[in-house]
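Possible regression after last week's pipeline update?

I re-ran a chain I had predicted before the update to compare outputs. Posting the input and the new output here so someone can diff against the archived version. Not blocking, just want to make sure nothing changed silently.
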Amino acid sequence: MNPQLEHARLITRRHFFGRTAAGIGGAALASLLNPDLFAAEPAAAQMHGILQQLHHAPKAKRVIYLFMSGGPSHIDLFDYKPELRKYHGSELPATIRMGQRITGMTSGQKSFPCVAPMFKFQPQGTNGTYISELLPHIGSIVDDLCIIKTLNTEAINHDPGITLIQTGFQQPGRPSMGSWLSYGLGSENQNLPAFVVMISQGSGNKTDQPLFSRLWGSGFIPSQHQGVRFRSSADPVLYLNNPPGIDAGSRRNMLDGVQALNGMAEQAFGDPEINARIAQYEMAFRMQTAVPDLTDLSSESKDTLDMYGLDAQGGGNAFARNCLLARRMAERGVRFVQLFHRGWDQHSDLPTQIRGQCKDVDQASAALVRDLKQRGLLDDTLVIWGGEFGRTVYSQGTLTATNHGRDHHGRCFTVWLAGGGVKPGLVYGRTDDYCYNITENPVHIHDFNATLLHCLGINHTKLTYRFQGRDFRLTDVHGNVVHEILV
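New output (post-update):
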C-alpha cells in the first residue's frame, strides 16, 4: 500500500461523486452501453484492482475453488496406504501420534484403533495414481490433476480451520482469499462481481458446522470486495429484480438520487465506506441485466448437462448446477468463484455418509475440469478441490465390521488442483503408512496460499493492506511458493 497514492485516489473519488446526479447517471449509462468507447484499452483487459501491474507473468487469470466443507477423509479418497490393512484394529502407536493434541470429541477415548479404508483403490492415469473407487470420475481426469498429499494446518476444529485456510488466520476479522483477489486484481467483467460464492448441502452429515458469511467477507478492506452469495434456487440474488411498476429508467433515476446524497455525505465525512456503498449500488444495477443471462442454462447443450449430471432444466444436484454456473462465470471474467459443499464431517457413520458425499461431487467436479479444458479455459483457470483438514486414521467411537467414524486431522491432508499453471499428472508430498505424519515435502496453508497467488502473478508479500498501523496480507508473516508443483 502507498498512502500517498491512496490519498490521491480518495481525492479523485470525492471529486467525481461530488458531481451532480445527472453526471453520475451519465457515467453509469455510458459504462452500460459500451465501456470500451471510453477506455484506452478494451474494458475486459483493464486492471481494476489496486495493483497497477502484476509482479510477474501470470499463468492463471481466475480461480474456481471447490471447497469441501467439513474435512473430507484423505485416507479413504486419495492417500492410498496398502500397509494400513495390517494395522486395522490395532492401537495407534504412541510413536506415530507423538502426543498430538486432539479434539474434545475423542480426547476421552481409552482406545484409538486404526481403521483401514473400507473401499478399494484403483491405479488411474498414465502414472498409475491410486484413487478411491468412490471417485471414478475424478480418477478418470487424474492426468490433469496436481495432487498435494501434504497440506497441513495447526487448526484442529472447524471454525479456526476453515477461517485459517480462507483468510490466513485462525481468528475472524481478516479478508478472505477472494476478497484479496478482488482488491488486488478487480474483475474482468464490469457487470458481475469479482468474487461470487455458492453453497450446496451434501447428503452426508446434514447437521455439520455452519458456514458464516465472514468466510467470504472483506474484513478490514473496502466492503465492495466481499463475496456476493448466489442462492441455489429462485432468484440467485435477492432483490435483484425490480418490483412491479418499476422499470429500468425509474430505477436509474432513483439510484442517481441516492448516489447524489451519498456523494454529498462522502464529501462531508470522507468515509471510504460511502464510496464502497456507491460502487455496490452501481454493481447491483448492472447485475440486473447480467445475472439473468448468466443463470439461464437453457442455452447449454444436452451433452453438457449430461456431463455435469443435470437434467434438461439444469435442476437436480445443486453442486453440479453450481459447477456449471462456475464455468459460465469463468467465461464472463469473474475473478474468484467459490463453491462450498457441506456435509464432509464424518465423526460417525463414515462408510455410508462419504459414499453420498462423493456421489454429490464426483461427476460434476470432473465435468468442470473437462468442460474448461475443451473450451480452452483450463490453462488460465486454476481449479482447487479440498477442505479445511483431513481425518484421523483412528476410529472415533466404536469400530465395527461395517461402521466407524474419523475425527479431525490437520497434520496432513490432500487437495488437488488443475490448470492455471500447476503441473498436471503430479503427486506431490508423502505421508507415513498411517496417513498421520508427513515424511516428504510438507505444504503449510500459508505456502499453499502463497502458491495460488503466485499463479495469478502476485507476490504474496506485496499484496498488503495497512490497518491499525500494520501491513496485513493473506499469508500473514509466513509462506513460501511451492515451485515444484508449477509449470
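Follow-up from reviewer: compared with the archived run. Residues 61-250+301-485 form a domain with the Alkaline Phosphatase, subunit A fold (CATH 3.40.720.10). Marking as no regression found.
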